[in-house]
Amino acid sequence: MTASDAEMAPSSASPAAPNQQRRPLVVMRGVSKMFSSGTVALSDMSLTVNGGEFVSLLGPSGCGKSTALRIMAGLGDVSSGTIDWPSSRINSKGLPEGDISFVFQEPTLMPWQTVFGNVHLPLKLKGVSKAAARDEIMATLATVGLKDFADAYPRELSGGMKMRVSIARALVTKPKLLLMDEPFAALDEITRQKLNDDVLRLWKETGITVIFVTHSVFESAYLSSRIVVMRARPGRVHADFPLHTSLERDAHYRTSEEYRQACETVSETLLEAMGGEDTH
Prior knowledge:
Radius of gyration: 19 Å
Number of helices: 8
CATH topology of the largest domain: Rossmann fold
CATH superfamily of the largest domain: P-loop containing nucleotide triphosphate hydrolases
Largest sheet: 6 strands, mixed
Strand order of the largest sheet: 5-6-7-3-8-9
């Protein structure tokens, strides 16, 4: 099955189908990034992400996936090129006003704060008190299955629960765009699959746009409405294709022929990208 085959797969039951006509949320045009060391992380990268999509950035280590994500989040500057936000109000820093949340590889929780306190942090920075934010925080904790752990401390939680707190903290401000940088890479396979299901459910329920960085062919094929495969440094887009499915993405889907074919398509495309690496 080729990338073009994936584009022709049935789309009526794809979670992304209702959102396909939404306007662009973020547009990268010819973005390049050179660090002070002289390393070129990105070269002429162009990418448009529409509202409601679940886009996975997939590629070998060092291909600039995380760099691209951080630039979108305003955590780094471009060396050349532009990033536009057609659907957002832009602040003085050139970023969408309150529209972006970021989930890092590590949960980065404050150990001295409870789960409630950690999720309150982004609202606190906006000047919202705990009392005023209580209902919103508890509702968000409920969406990630942690309503009964509001008073627990990070040391009392498993790795998967800590990551759920991180996701709740990212969702509590109701962003348009959720950026996720390999959030489940350090977790065991069972926990990782459970969190994949949780994120997929939250995406469907909220209509949020997700850009998800991963090294995993299987994870990208399971989660995504669209996959962007990047080539090795300097990073740029090698392939960009939708990944529709006629089945519900659940435990049964993971053992289906359709999922196997999707994984094969993504794996072959990734191998092509790695085969095209610069050798000088």
